[in-house]
From TrEMBL:
N(1)-(5-phospho-beta-D-ribosyl)glycinamide binds at G18, S19, N20. InterPro entries: Formyl_transf_N, Formyl_transf_N_sf, GART, GART_AS. It catalyses: N(1)-(5-phospho-beta-D-ribosyl)glycinamide + (6R)-10-formyltetrahydrofolate = N(2)-formyl-N(1)-(5-phospho-beta-D-ribosyl)glycinamide + (6S)-5,6,7,8-tetrahydrofolate + H(+). The record marks D150 as: Raises pKa of active site His. NCBIfam families: PurN (TIGR00639). It comes from Ponticaulis profundi. PANTHER family: PHOSPHORIBOSYLGLYCINAMIDE FORMYLTRANSFERASE. (6R)-10-formyltetrahydrofolate binds at R70, N112. Its EC number is 2.1.2.2. One of its GO terms (molecular function) is phosphoribosylglycinamide formyltransferase activity. Pathway: Purine metabolism; IMP biosynthesis via de novo pathway; N(2)-formyl-N(1)-(5-phospho-D-ribosyl)glycinamide from N(1)-(5-phospho-D-ribosyl)glycinamide (10-formyl THF route): step 1/1. It is an enzyme of class 2 (transferase). This is Phosphoribosylglycinamide formyltransferase.
C-alpha cells in the first residue's frame, strides 16, 4: 500500500443494522490503513448508530425525509463530511440514491457494497431476482460509486452457490457472510489505489 503518515480519514454511511460497517471498523483497527472518523446515517433509528456510539465512533444522523429534495439533503451531508475532514467514503447498506452533484465530487473516493454479481441485478431484490432467473450462483460486489446506480467499476467480488429450493432470505444470509470477507479486503485495495493516485497528483 502507498505510504502516508496519517491513515486515510474514512466515513461509513449506513441505513440499518450496519454489519458491514462493523467489519470495516474492525479491519481499520487491525490493519491501520484508514481511520473511521464518522458513521453517517440517513435514519435516526439505524441500529448501527447505537453500536457506533457504544464504540466511541463519531456519528451523524441526517434524516432525508426532512428535506424537500435530494440535493438539499446532500448539501448537509457534504457540510458534515467537511466538518470531519473526511477523505474517503464507504457506503455500507446505505439505501439512498445519491445525485451526480454528490457522486461527481466524490468520484474515486467513494465505494459501495452491493449484494449481487454486478453488472447483474443492480437495484433492489437482488437475491429474489437471481433465484427466479434460475442462476447457479449469486454473490456480492464492491464497486466505485459513479452517477449511475450500481454502475461504477467493480473492485472485487465474492461468489456463492445457489442451492435447489433456496429462498431469498437464506441466500441473503449466505451472501452477507461473504460480504464480511469481501468488504474489508476491497476497501483496503480501493484506499491503496486512491493513495497512489493522490501521490501521482502531488508529483505532477
Ligand atoms: C447488505 O447486504 C448490503 O450489501 C446491502 O444492504 C445490506 C446491508 O446490511 N446493500 C444494498 O442493497 C445497497 N444497494 P448491513 O447493514 O448489515 O451491512
Amino acid at each position: 500500500m502507498a505510504e502516508r503518515e496519517e491513515p486515510v480519514r474514512l466515513a461509513i454511511f449506513i441505513s440499518g443494522r450496519g454489519s458491514n460497517m462493523k467489519t470495516l471498523v474492525q479491519a481499520c483497527l487491525d490493519e491501520g490503513f484508514a481511520k473511521p472518523v464518522l458513521i453517517l446515517s440517513n435514519s435516526y433509528s439505524a441500529a448501527g448508530l447505537e453500536w457506533a456510539t457504544e464504540n466511541d465512533l463519531p456519528i451523524a444522523a441526517i434524516d432525508h425525509r426532512a428535506y424537500d429534495d435530494r440535493e438539499s439533503f446532500e448539501k448537509d451531508v457534504q457540510d458534515t463530511l467537511e466538518l470531519h475532514n473526511v477523505e474517503f467514503i464507504a457506503l455500507a447498506g446505505f439505501m439512498r440514491v445519491l445525485t451526480p452533484w454528490f457522486t461527481d465530487q466524490w468520484e474515486g473516493r467513494m465505494i459501495n457494497i452491493h449484494p449481487s454479481l454486478l453488472p447483474k441485478y443492480p437495484g433492489l431484490h437482488t437475491h429474489k431476482r437471481a433465484i427466479e432467473a434460475g442462476d447457479k450462483e449469486a454473490g456480492c460486489s464492491v464497486h466505485w460509486v459513479t452517477a449511475g446506480v450500481d454502475e461504477g467499476a467493480v473492485i472485487d467480488q465474492e461468489r456463492v452457490e445457489i442451492m435447489p429450493n433456496d429462498t431469498p432470505d437464506a441466500l441473503a444470509e449466505r451472501v452477507l457472510e461473504r460480504e464480511h470477507f469481501l468488504y474489508p479486503r476491497a476497501l483496503q485495495k480501493a484506499i491503496s489505489d486512491f493513495l497512489v493516485r493522490e501521490l501521482q497528483n502531488e508529483a505532477d
